[in-house]
Design brief:
Chains A, B: Keywords: FAD, Flavoprotein, Oxidoreductase. Chains A, B: Its cofactor is FAD. The structure is a homodimer. Chain A is 53% helix and 11% strand. Chain A is an alpha+beta fold. In chain A, the strands form 3 sheets. In chain A, strands 3, 4, 5, 6, 7, 10, 11 and 12 form an 8-stranded mixed β-sheet that branches. Chain A has a two-stranded antiparallel ribbon with strand order 1-2. In chain A, strands 8-9 form a two-stranded antiparallel sheet. Chain A is globular.
Chain lengths: 598, 598
């Protein structure tokens, strides 16, 4: 794979500099040492390492998934080489404070850099990304001593991190977790329980693994109000920072997945007695923040992970799209429909309108998705007060958009991967081409970190009313700033009108649903609501990108952006009316279905 | 897997007996020895063998794809055991004349029986199904001697068959094939060329393999008008029927696929000189039918194969749906949205409305798809004059519906498999559950036997005007018979009205598109046209099924049928208006896209 097939640097530059004005961020004190030059340098470095050391073993990861030999989990050696290079380049702390050895990059630039690694090799890059999210949680909620002991070695690349939420009997339903944490009277706890779906849960890639584990302290309230958060390291750490005893965290099994095979995914037993730290049963754990407030802390990591899932889904779709475009330009097949002469030379796939349709659909999904994710990264910078926009609303808008940025790319950039296979025809169905792996890898994204359906319940059941509806107001304000501009131009007036119209319909439907006191009814079509909402948001993001293109330019790049925007409005947004009809009518078909009728 | 997870016998019985009146077929002389009892007996036998000998190694097939050791292609032994049992039961000739050892089963019953095998193991069942389609072609177009030499051993289970169309440089574009067939002056030909994507192209499962090969005789017209069809056996056959010399057909490689791994898929070299039959280069071939009329003969097999693809797509979706329903009834997760007590016991997945939505969508796709395929099987019987309906139009209607019956299940029953994974959550993404394999297996169906896009061009560019538009008239006649009945009933009047309305819109759009003399424009959205057409056809098929349910019955089976019909009308057909808007407006977004803009 060449860099050009991983991501489109021209497009990233457009989004960062021409659209989201990354350079303006350097006027904020936190970023004042930075300039377009430093941003570009980190981007160059990221693209280079991603290409040379991550993309090189993406298929090998897929063909050689981690194995357990009874003692240790074995992964192919290229994984460690890649992550070591990532860590040595200081990328693990790219957005962190200088005091932690970080670069203090804006989130916008950092996310754009990280995109290269996920696109090049989603399996290997999961290790550092989980570590970074874990460190961010501890920076926000851990004690100084915890940060010293656990976070610093993560930024040095010596410790890796995980998040341990699900259990075999409780996937999405955290209220039902059973892992218990017994206080030992010395400030530590001993944990007992089983955790499922733990990515990067066991391996020999790092000196230690820092598990962040949800568990219940005996006597705590039932449900999510009784959940606490613990650091449970694979190895205990001595006072001097050296590695101590093995903690009682034991691998119970590896999951064998459809894709995403480069990341170990494990079932872990805590405190089953395989190891006896301090001569005693139970896995030693250290509480993060207050007892019974663990879920709120964990949501810090989960919200970040959800944005990460969105980014992963986007870039898998994006790299698949680039592969499909290249194939369509190289592969000769058939003739134009107006050409009836069988002796004329065949044309390329890209000369067929139906192939252009499939490529344009992909372009509209993956560039729309990337723009959405980077816009949200920009909101994180705005939350720090580094905005050019009305920064007061960045926080509430980010809260509102989190389920969208997670779910929309997981749905539509996966659809892009499906179309990339289709463009390749029979070849795309073979493992000689990468597009089938991209599809399989991406298929995880609508499932983990809260399924697609759960994102819908989160959006309609919680986020739209959060902060007294301020998120919706922020979205409306920004969306209408875009449509007001677009309405002034003859080439965009059509889009402004449809977006304004659908936005008001969406609002009406939202009010209608929120007025229904019966949660079972009002949330019965939350998934469809999520999907309609997502399409409206991405249409706005597309229109805003369009407006960032120089007016009347006939540069091919800008013409492509405009055409993809037109595609999204005419061929995607146009379907949302029918979805809103169903939501508005309160269709009860699914609600009324009885189990015995299946 | 138990029989209940392969297919739903109750539903098959409903479709065959309560809806399509299979028993009425026994009044036709060809089927006069038959009765519901004989039909049921073959169905029982099929379900039994499929369950005991095909389903048992479906996952093993996936995990152990065929290998080539340099000499022979090795497949796991269970494949041969399964196919031998299929052949010994006489199923390979189930629909054939008594004179060939057949059972003279109606197509409707035969297809329903065969559905069990594809659902149980699509990989292993491809061998007999390709053989059956190959035999049918030769019965229709081969000489008496060819039938004697090649077809009879196929019905005896000794010879297997393939179809060899594509070449590495010409997948969908048969006009560009390069394999040449040199006449030898003795009525035989010698073939030279490479064929790609040949399923069942090499193995040791049978005494011989009968390849049906498209090739060009030197001096023939260019393009598809110069294509001839040849029998090219793997082994020549002596005059007495015993196996003779090895013919010059050599395995050049195996394709390694995303799914469908149980079927060998090969690249074959014809006449490369590895073998020298009669001491001479070239693969010996025998022309089927007239020289240069090969494509028309091949379409006999292709049309049958396309219906077969539709059936395969349906039953993979169907078995996935049954697995998802079972899982949703067994797995406890979360609470009702109205239940705020975390100490109340968790409910099952099926108690969540969003899960019911995913299951109901699957039900509407797979039962709609199965009904469509069986309706078409019934048309094949009507073509023989065994109809209860207006049989004159069965032929033209079948021609019209062929691209629909191929493409619609390939799209929507694949979508059902995707939803089956989603219902399973993280477990569905692992190889411990079968649903991920069903998805990967089914992903082939929108690609092979004419891609999805090619089906659209076939429908709009050819089939709708074929026979002077008689197919469209036949469809309208039958559709309006259904809506006329449905309009009389209060519970179905809503569906009748929407179906009539959308049918007339579809007709208007069709006329509009056909009036455009520029093929590049009129066919630019042929895929969207195909999808709109498919949804209209399946809505009609659903409504017709609804009407076959006893009025006012509160039997759970009929209530489920009605609810799934309602789902399809309210939540699927309702989207078609937006698609027809695009077609009617002649949206040029994709047509105008330039290559440089991607």
């Amino acid at each position: 794979m060449s860099q050009e097939l991983i991501l489109n640097r021209r497009d990233l530059d457009f989004m960062m500099y021409e659209w989201l004005d990354a350079e303006a961020l350097t006027s904020h004190p936190r970023f004042s040492d930075h300039s377009r030059e430093t941003f570009d340098a980190v981007m160059d470095l990221s693209a280079q390492i991603a290409n040379d050391l991550f993309a090189n073993h993406n298929r090998k990861n897929d063909l050689n998934e981690p194995t357990f030999d009874g003692e240790k989990v074995q992964v192919i050696p290229e994984v460690k080489t890649a992550i070591d290079a990532f860590n040595e380049a200081g990328l693990v702390a790219a957005a962190q404070d200088y005091e932690y050895g970080g670069m203090q990059l804006p989130a916008l630039v950092e996310k754009a850099c990280m995109a290269w690694f996920k696109a090049a090799n989603v399996g290997s890059s999961a290790y550092p990304f989980l570590t970074m999210a874990n460190a961010n949680l501890l920076l926000a909620h851990g004690s100084k001593a915890q940060i010293e002991t656990w976070v610093k070695p993560m930024f040095e690349g010596r410790f890796f991190g995980t998040m341990c939420l699900s259990e075999p009997q409780a996937g999405s339903s955290l209220a039902d977790i059973r892992t218990r944490a017994e206080p030992q009277g010395d400030g530590t706890y001993r944990l007992h329980g089983n955790k499922m779906w733990i990515s990067a849960g066991d391996h020999e890639l790092s000196e230690n693994i820092v598990h962040l584990v949800l568990a219940k302290v005996p006597g705590s309230p039932p449900g999510v109000k009784g959940i606490s958060l613990f650091i449970v390291p694979r190895w205990l750490v001595n006072e001097d920072g050296t590695r101590g005893e093995r903690n009682d965290v034991a691998l119970a099994g590896l999951n064998h997945k459809m894709g995403y095979r480069g990341t170990t995914n494990t079932l872990l037993n805590f405190g089953e007695g395989k190891f006896q730290p301090g001569g005693q049963g139970g896995a030693v754990g250290y509480c993060v923040g207050e007892v019974n407030k663990g879920l709120a802390c964990m949501f810090h990591m989960m919200n970040e992970a959800r944005v990460g899932v969105g980014m992963g889904a986007v870039v898998l779709g994006y790299t698949g799209y680039l592969h499909a475009v290249e194939y369509a330009k190289e592969r000769f097949q058939g003739r134009r429909l107006t050409d009836k002469d069988p002796q004329s030379p065949p044309v390329r796939l890209i000369d067929h309108t139906d192939v252009k349709r499939m490529l344009l659909a992909q372009k509209s999904y993956v560039e729309g998705g990337l723009a959405l994710v980077l816009y949200c990264a920009r909101l994180l910078d705005e939350k720090r007060g580094a905005g050019v926009c009305d920064e007061d609303d960045a926080d509430v808008l980010m809260d509102l958009l989190t389920p969208i940025v997670k779910s929309w790319p997981s749905q539509w950039c996966l659809a892009a991967n499906d179309l990339a296979i289709q463009v390749h025809g029979g070849y795309g169905y073979t493992r000689d081409y990468q597009v089938e792996q991209f599809y399989r890898d991406n298929r995880l994204n609508p499932i983990h970190e809260g399924t697609h359906g759960i994102q819908g319940l989160d959006l309609l059941g919680r986020r739209v009313r959060q902060h007294g509806g301020a998120g919706m107001q922020a979205l409306q304000r920004r969306l209408q700033m875009t449509t007001a501009k677009a309405a002034q131009r003859s080439d965009t007036a059509e889009f402004a009108a449809s977006l304004d119209a659908i936005w008001f319909r969406l609002q009406d439907v939202t009010q209608l649903l929120l007025r229904n006191p019966n949660a079972e009814e009002s949330l019965s079509d939350a998934t469809l609501y999520l999907e309609a909402f997502g399409h409206v948001v991405v249409a706005w993001i597309w229109l805003d990108q369009y407006l960032a293109c120089p007016e009347n330019s006939d540069d091919a790049f800008y013409l492509g952006k405009r055409q993809a925007c037109q595609y999204f409005f005419r061929r995607e947004l146009s379907q949302v009316d029918a979805w809103l009809d169903l939501l508005g009518d309160g269709d009860r078909t699914c609600l009324d279905m009885s189990e015995g009728w299946f």
